[in-house]
């Protein structure tokens, strides 16, 4: 088998129109979001306006990172020291990190083998922990049954914040991911769906919540220079009551993102063509489970996951090593020690240890890979061939 030579961390270059927009900002010298002339909207305010329109939300705040957007959302909701916040047992470290940032305690909820939140465990944990909020992570772009989730949360009066780092552009039953609860949090870090190096977007329809978020982000008294913010009256007391925890986006990043937003829908189609090609190939294999995608879900296939539910630790290790030898980087979440990104709850030692047998069993057989748009469809077919070969071989060996 020919090894694959593409890079799993290589994103597409920033397009010429985005580079031109960035150069214009650099030439102007006005990189700070509030450094505007007259009543022009600067690039950050323009981005907020454009992203709110894309998302279908009333308000949008651009900030420094997805993690900052989540911590700001929790603060703006009034979550603080000692409060309990529900989140997924399987997510990326910035999620429990944002809960820790506000001094709250993460209550981890089990996931299912479709990599979404387990609604039964969720309800049990709502009753047991009396949480102040839920920070749902749409981890690796898998959406749970959002209608069923909202029914559970609403019946217990638990407000929802959505981590949409992997679901920017996704929707459930035609409704955008990030618009189900009080807030949606997005990341524009290099490995997400738009690339400004670092960056975050926070959306909401709630005027007071957004006014608090804007003040928290460090708007001084310049909140009227926002592209999708609430009316000035809403800030009357909030501007004096809310501390400044600077985390503004700058015009340089916003200018790059503004031009990228126009290409997002096309890129979603490109990601899904690549994702589905790999998924269809692996789904056809015995002893491999590819998470189910309900018809209500419009996903963004920027990464691909599959499970080997019956495989031993030894077999899993063989798959990872075998794939790596042929140039394919698979991430395995069952490893003892975190490699690269940390997504196993056992490596979050700042969180009170919690017993998640179901999640642990799923992670033990879960493999994951990025699908950068620099891969052609032929590249993806090659990668799928390698995975199928290595998995088939390891399973055969395991059975022998
Ligand atoms: C990347 C990511 C975030 C936010 O990350 P930042 O690096 O803070 O922008 C949040 N949740 C998940 C699941 C992520 O992968």
TrEMBL record:
It holds the Pfam family DegT_DnrJ_EryC1. One of its GO terms (molecular function) is pyridoxal phosphate binding. InterPro entries: DegT/StrS_aminotransferase (IPR000653), PyrdxlP-dep_Trfase (IPR015424), PyrdxlP-dep_Trfase_major (IPR015421), PyrdxlP-dep_Trfase_small (IPR015422). Keywords: Aminotransferase, Pyridoxal phosphate, Transferase. GO terms for biological process: polysaccharide biosynthetic process. The keyword Cytoplasm does not apply. The active site is at residue 192. The keyword Chaperone does not apply. It comes from the Bacteria. The modification N6-(pyridoxal phosphate)lysine is found at residue 192. Belongs to the DegT/DnrJ/EryC1 family. This is DegT/DnrJ/EryC1/StrS family aminotransferase.
